Amino acid sequence: MERDTEIFSLIEQEHQRQLRGMELIASENFVSDQVMAAMGSYLTNKYAEGYPGKRYYGGCQIVDQVETLAIERIKKVFDAEYANVQPHSGAQANQAVLLAVLKPGDTFMGLDLDQGGHLSHGSSVNTSGILYHQVGYTLNRETGRVDYDEMERLALENKPKLIIGGGSAYSREWDYERMRKIADEVGAIFMVDMAHPAGLIAAGLLKNPVKYAHIVTTTTHKTLRGPRGGVILMGKDFDNPWGLTTKKGVVKPMSMLLNSAVFPGNQGGPLEHVIAAKAVAFGENLQPSWVDYATQVKKNAAVLAQDLIDRGYDIVSGGTDNHSMLLDLRPKYPELTGKVAENALVAADITVNKNKVPYDERSAFQTSGIRLGTAAMTTRGAKEDLMHLVASLIDEVLADPENEQVIKRVREKVNETMKDYPLFAY
Ligand code: PLP
């Protein structure tokens, strides 16, 4: 068979794009060689429907050990008693939880998408909003932080069966204790989607939601720096005080309901090559150097946010407690949309994504904001000095986003600078 030069040339082009640019997309990262090697391994050849020790296919003796290691490692990372490492993605992990704990038409609560929530927390175009009834909570207009008083009022009014914490564009710590109290008050299950800050939580730099929530989900590819995928965790296995049943009407412990919701409820064969890569990443999360990495991610985000504030930009909520920040462009440049800002920065090899800001009057295709994060740049070895440069380059481009000369000058500076930073420095 002929070698596929077309695809492999595109892969190399993408590799070069990653090498020469500054990657500031808050949900992205660069994986280690070992994580990469596990993904491109012989495990991709194996079918393994079911769970370790209980498969629907023969020949699973090795992948059983791989999956068990992934489970044991992530339980250790987050001090959890239960883990399902099979969800193909974060959205599918969330979909599986909803399938396990809700019936079509049931009410649940999540942070609205245009306030920083995720699609899978009840957006009308996602199965979470199509199959179930979502009541969205919001951010306080003045503080830019989650409005827990409103959340409580909405919970008492709507009696949701599930309340979801966590978001995609929220730079502040969550009050999990308050959320658990609100959930207990109305008899709801409390779930946290920690996809964004999970890597910082793993390092002990932010509160661990596994201690407060009944169920926790995460992606594995953002700050956790693993392969693309999802995970479901529980601090302890609930013997199901809510009386939730299987699709056949039998009351079972939460662990069994969640496992059945992932497979066969939501997926077929698990991606054992990706699960192996997850195990490698969780092994990295457990090493002492992980704390150094996560600490630097947080420091870098704080420096970048402060530099941008000093240059007159508005950061939603006034700063960041994690790796991310949402830049509201309106106060400094009322005419500049997130779309134009993203395009100009990408042309200068600074990759960001446009994002709606809370109470944005522009559409999701235009937006008034951009979201930034420091997880990927920190993996490349970036420290505070590089963050000062990043802030000044962003400012230079946004001050004159249609000026080709400025974009060219900044791009050359970006490309020259990033020659000193390997893709993976830790
Ligand atoms: N949950 C949160 C909070 C996210 O930010 C994301 C993705 O950005 C997801 C879930 C979905 O993850 P995936 O893209 O793997 O489905």
UniProtKB/TrEMBL annotation:
(6S)-5,6,7,8-tetrahydrofolate binds at L113, G117, H118, L119, S363, A364, F365. Keywords: Amino-acid biosynthesis, Cytoplasm, One-carbon metabolism, Pyridoxal phosphate, Transferase. It comes from the Bacteria. The keyword Protease does not apply. The record marks H221 as: Plays an important role in substrate specificity. It is found in: Cytoplasm. Its main location: cytoplasm. Pathway: One-carbon metabolism; tetrahydrofolate interconversion; Amino-acid biosynthesis; glycine biosynthesis; glycine from L-serine: step 1/1. InterPro entries: PyrdxlP-dep_Trfase, PyrdxlP-dep_Trfase_major, PyrdxlP-dep_Trfase_small, Ser_HO-MeTrfase, Ser_HO-MeTrfase-like, Ser_HO-MeTrfase_PLP_BS, SHMT-like_dom. It catalyses: (6R)-5,10-methylene-5,6,7,8-tetrahydrofolate + glycine + H2O = (6S)-5,6,7,8-tetrahydrofolate + L-serine. Signal peptide: none annotated. Residues 2-394 form the Serine hydroxymethyltransferase-like domain. Its EC number is 2.1.2.1. The modification N6-(pyridoxal phosphate)lysine is found at K222. Its cofactor is pyridoxal 5'-phosphate. The keyword Transferase applies. It holds the Pfam family SHMT. GO terms for molecular function: glycine hydroxymethyltransferase activity. Catalyzes the reversible interconversion of serine and glycine with tetrahydrofolate (THF) serving as the one-carbon carrier. This reaction serves as the major source of one-carbon groups required for the biosynthesis of purines, thymidylate, methionine, and other important biomolecules. Also exhibits THF-independent aldolase activity toward beta-hydroxyamino acids, producing glycine and aldehydes, via a retro-aldol mechanism. Belongs to the SHMT family. Homodimer. This is Serine hydroxymethyltransferase. It comes from Hallella faecis.
